[in-house]
Amino acid sequence: MQTILNFFKSFAHDFDTVFIVKDRYMSIVRGLLNTLKITAGALIVGVIIGVFVAAIRSSYDKNRESLKAKKSVGYYVLTVLNAICKIYLTVIRGTPVVVQLMIAYFVIFVSVKDGVPIGIFAFGINSGAYVAEIFRGGIMSIDNGQFEAGRSLGFNYVQTMWYIVIPQMFKAVLPTLCNEFIALLKETSVAGYVGVIDLTKAGNSIAGVTYNYFMPLIAVAIVYLAIVMLLTSLVARLERRLRKSDH
After folding, report:
1. Structural domains for the chain
2. pLDDT along the chain (247 residues), means of 10
């Protein structure tokens, strides 16, 4: 019994030292807010980039033969744009995100002191490469009859993509896109490399001051786990709702 009491006393003392003294828990709160800012901003940037890259690559794949036969200017423009997109995908997916983040901070935006917008930019560029392939797979899975239906309505190719294909593509890839959001959330844990006080950096800073690594790092892990479990639950509910709407 005494051993249990001593354990709880020690735990309460350590908890007070790690989180309560000097309001150190606020570092965790501020770090969480920065993590959520970077994740949400990067997702928006990634989706915008992903839509454009996927539209270019899928348009090239679907119309290459017909445009090549006509020898139109559009074929050469689309070929160049597709080549640029492939280089972008190869470079971004072939290098670690932490290296891309440090290049953005120490090379491209060396004069910018706030690491949050740089984190949004770097993680957004990285996420865009993966989102683009998700969207491209979704577009390529849409039946060609949908394109023919668009033409029968008098739409050109761009209008058909915008009004008919892309809405269906979003519905098909939404669960996968949500999983990319979850992966992006965890990837932002390396933002501390460029001086951003994110959730992981905040926990590590508290550990360095108090010389107690167990409590702050476990707290960080629990916060990440809670967010991921919440997002996973929302994704599962979304998938069930989408399956019901298909029947």
Report:
1. 26-191 (1.10.3720.10)
2. 70 78 86 93 93 88 72 79 94 94 90 88 94 88 78 78 79 82 90 88 89 89 92 82 67
